[in-house]
Amino acid sequence: MKPVSMLDLKAEFPLFEKAVRVAMDEVLESQHFIGGSHVAALEEKFANLTGAKHAVAIGSGTDAILVALMATDISPGDEVITTPFTFFATAGCIHRAGGKPVFVDIESDTFNIDPAKIEAAITSKTKAIMPVHLFGQCADMDAIKNLAVKANLVVIEDAAQAVGAMYNSQAAGALGHAGCFSFYPTKNLGGFGEGGMVTTNDDDFATKVRQLRNHGQTDQYHHTMIGGNFRLNTMQAAILSAKLPHLAAFNMRRNEIAQQYNEILAATPSIRTPRIADHCQSCFHQYSILTDQRDALREHLNSQSIGSGIYYPVPLHLQPCFEFLGYEAGDFPVSEETAKRILSLPVHPMLTDADVKRVASCIVQHQSETIPAGATYPAGATGRS
Ligand SMILES: Cc1ncc(COP(=O)(O)O)c(C=O)c1O
């Protein structure tokens, strides 16, 4: 039985190995490891990719969020609205920047922040909204931006999972005031180590992010702001530039795989496949289904050597470190229910059609053997939504 894993970086590597080795050699020969032309070249390519006027390379996705919040001048007491159903870094950085994360529940079918619930969370202290384009699908940015304009708020996209994702005809990262990306090795554009990027159309904001990423210095050893070391190293920039030409094809393959899953799983109403909104083109960082039998199904897949992932098992308002925010179980029921039922399936671009069929068939078989015929997700629902 051929194993199907969540990720297969070894299988991808030969596709760009030559270009990456050439790029790495260039860096080695230059003995220039911080900044320089490779970083500038990646920034230019990334700005072109997203359509944002500026792209500023940062050492990780987490630091991209942190520095974007620092450049927004988040100060103690400022509230930043975000989703509790995300990777920890989103809210962790809001706190580290001095702000207070204010959570708003998600939509049950896209897993992104529910714009209909944002207005009630806006107070006189709200400074920004940080939507997360979870699993590669943009949040409902028109609705979010309308609310932000009305309340004079900054919108910072957590686009860590959304490189190449589109919303109408615009790319993630060019939709809000700033976009924050991750090049963690498992991401759609993954480095050989940590990496990130901040995008923006605002000249002053870009200048500020550039300054903050280098300890806030204007000229060497002259500091007008307190920043940090948020720089992307030259080797990562060279590697990412060499991998970038493959991104579009990889994202397209992820979409094909998602379509194949959708088609096969359509006949199994106890599984809810992800909804992609009409105006969105996901880059399918993850393909995540909902099922009432999540843990049993995962065990079954595991027994068939098929990988799967749970993103995320505990919503952030229930994390012990955020207890001081005062939230309780039940505050965000959609996030809490989703955390119990979500399962991400392999969707990496090196999967063959046969792999995808095997994963989907295993799911169909498991459901037909364990669930009464006609059972729906959620239990008792009529039809799919
Ligand atoms: C939604 C989200 N935000 C932020 C991050 C942080 O990025 P990094 O791991 O590059 O620091 C990640 C990466 O896992 C993420 O998925």
What does this entry show, briefly?
By secondary structure, the chain is α/β, with parallel strands linked by helices. It contains eleven helices and 15 strands.
Oligomer classification: single chain
Distance between the termini: 34 Å
Biggest β-sheet strands, sense, barrel: 7 strands, mixed
Shape: globular
Q: Rg, please?
A: 21 Å
Record the strand order, biggest sheet: 1-9-8-5-4-2-3
Amount of beta strand: 5-15%
Could you tell me the mean pLDDT? 96
How many helix segments? 11
The first-level CATH class of the largest domain is given as Alpha Beta
Fraction of residues in helix: 25-40%
Q: What ligands does this structure carry?
A: pyridoxal-5'-phosphate
**SS-based structural class?**
alpha/beta
- State the CATH architecture of the largest domain: 3-Layer(aba) Sandwich
The CATH superfamily of the largest domain is identified as: Type I PLP-dependent aspartate aminotransferase-like (Major domain)
Q: How many strand elements? A: 15
The CATH topology annotation of the largest domain reads as Aspartate Aminotransferase, domain 2
Unreliable stretches, pLDDT < 50, 5 or more residues? none
Helix and strand succession?
A: HHEHEHEEHEEEEEHEEHHEEEHHEH
